[in-house]
Write a structure and sequence with these properties.
Layout lengths: L2 H8 L3 H9 L17 H15 L4 H9 L4 E6 L2 E5 L10 H16 L13
Antiparallel strand pairs: 1-2
């Protein structure tokens, strides 16, 4: 796709796209300058960047988040931290199934053992 198509799909200005490329937030186009070709990775990268900006992250923090390939930790409550892959941010993944999986996992992890009453120190 051409740069104009990327601009139409993302709603960002050409100058912003060029900034994101120059700062390494998205890769440069393939095909060279005269035949620059952009793909879904560019659209996804721009949307991810814009979503993080909407959430209040400055560009320097976004670079750190995106560089953390293993994921970025987000503290939820004391003792529980959610590790989010940069690929998940602004991915459009449905949230309810993720919440159900998190709830199931936390329920299993935090549940007391069935034989807790038999353990020393329990009356």
């Amino acid at each position: 796709m051409r740069l104009r198509d990327v601009i139409d799909r993302t709603g960002v200005a050409e100058r912003q796209v060029r900034y994101l490329i120059s700062e390494g937030f998205i890769p440069g186009p393939s095909g060279g300058r005269a035949n620059a070709d952009y793909g879904e990775a560019h659209v996804t990268g721009i949307r991810r960047y814009m979503r993080l900006r909407e959430l209040g992250f400055p560009p320097a923090a976004i670079k750190l988040l995106l560089a953390a390939r293993e994921g970025t930790p987000f503290p939820i409550v004391p003792g529980i931290t959610l590790l989010v892959s940069p690929d998940m941010v602004a991915s459009g993944a449905p949230v309810p199934p993720l919440l159900a999986q998190i709830e199931t996992l936390l329920t299993k992890l935090l549940k007391e053992s069935d034989d807790a009453d038999d353990q020393p120190g329990h009356d």
